[in-house]
Amino acid sequence: MTDLPPQLLTEATEPAHRYRLRAPNIPETAKVARDMIAGLLAATGHPALVETARLLVSEVVANVHLHTKVPLLSLEATIRGHRLHVSVRDDDPNGVPWPPAPRTPEAEADAEHGRGLLLVQACADAWGTVWHGGIQPTGKSVWFSLSDVPGPPTQAVTVVT
Question: How confident is the model at residue 140 (pLDDT cuts 50, 70, 90)?
Answer without folding.
Answer: very high
